Amino acid sequence: MGNSLRRAILFGVMGVAAISNASDFNLTPFQINLSAGVPRMLEFINDTILPAQPAYPGLGDSLGIDLDVVKSLKNQWLEEFDWNAEQRDMNLLPQYTAEIEGHKIHFVHAKSHDPDAIPLLINHGWPGSSFLEFEPIIDKLTTVVHTSHSGLDKKVSFDVIIPSLPGFAFSSPAPKNWTLDDTARIYNRLMTEVLGYPKFAVHGTSHGAAIAYTLYEDYSNTTRAAHFSFIPFFPPTGEQVKAMNISLTPLEKDMLDRSDEWSKTGNAYFLLQQYQPNTIGLALQDNPIGLLSWIGEKYIEWSNPSAGTPPSLLTHNEILRCVSLYFLTKSFITSIFTYAQNPTAFRSVYTKAPTTAPMLLSQFRYNVGYWPRQIAESVGNLVEYRNHESGGNFPGLDNPEALISDIRRIGEYWA
């Protein structure tokens, strides 16, 4: 954890304390304290007996996570992973809870020293359990840098706000009929009423992209820029792209093929979590190795094949942090209800948001969706479009430097 982040933590506490109406929302500093549940978690892990051999040798990961990978992760969990050390690192981040419309929302609020910093609301998705998948980018985004992309020297930095979605980690579960539109509404209140920002930028991925896009589309007076690494529209098929006479680079063709493959064989989890969340939720809620297999597969399958080697920081330890947080907070079942509560979160018809605010899209080679520029232009005021050779669904871990650089481009258009 860098010195600038530690300074940002102090500044963040001072900044929040100065907000006059913070008491209206029961704004409270927050520290993670889940150590009491760790012995039981480790006991469950140790007592879980995995098969000595695969049921059908030679399949590898073609039909799900590889047994040898699960065994390796299990051993690392028992022998190397240190929850208390991870928890201490997490608690270096300035965290709070606020009560908005009767819902407890947990969030990170790391402030820049620059009074002109751009407020940036970062929205995670699933299986991202909270702020963890963006932890590597927080420090650098709060740091002031000077850019000259347009020939003019500009300074760029951000106040970074990362809420845990309702039902995830330390935020309260969403009510039965809650939708991501409701989450967008209370996030807008978090930014404008709780934290006092009259305008802000957003970043989103997965279900977080649906929240960010709703803010971009419906709250354009306050949401004045949007950066996405995933947009909440079903990606086009290869046949649709061909019919539109869209030319693709070799990288884009590879990304489209991967997107097509996910649509055909990779979305079984999506359907199960949408239509039978109780079934998989009850099966895995109190089962750490089960959670590891279910969630770990996504981290591995949706990431760079060389994940964990530069520029990627997505090590097996990161997977264990995420899964441990799900298990210790008992939030898996409420997190996946997001799918059942939002069957139309990802739209099938491309419609353009009625806003002039700039939209930026960064796509990473090993993600599960791909959108050509022509389609991205049809849903927003697209000003930046970038494709990256490295990274996947978790670019904050898998290619953090590229994500930081692309998010900083917001500064070119911020007014």
UniProtKB/TrEMBL annotation:
<dbReference type="InterPro" id="IPR010497">
    <property type="entry name" value="Epoxide_hydro_N"/>
</dbReference>
<protein>
    <recommendedName>
        <fullName>Epoxide hydrolase N-terminal domain-containing protein</fullName>
    </recommendedName>
</protein>
<dbReference type="InterPro" id="IPR016292">
    <property type="entry name" value="Epoxide_hydrolase"/>
</dbReference>
<comment type="similarity">
    <text>Belongs to the peptidase S33 family.</text>
</comment>
<keyword id="KW-0058">Aromatic hydrocarbons catabolism</keyword>
<dbReference type="Pfam" id="PF06441">
    <property type="entry name" value="EHN"/>
</dbReference>
<dbReference type="GO" id="GO:0097176">
    <property type="term" value="P:epoxide metabolic process"/>
</dbReference>
<keyword id="KW-0378">Hydrolase</keyword>
<dbReference type="InterPro" id="IPR029058">
    <property type="entry name" value="AB_hydrolase_fold"/>
</dbReference>
<feature type="domain" description="Epoxide hydrolase N-terminal">
    <location>
        <begin position="29"/>
        <end position="134"/>
    </location>
</feature>
<dbReference type="GO" id="GO:0004301">
    <property type="term" value="F:epoxide hydrolase activity"/>
</dbReference>
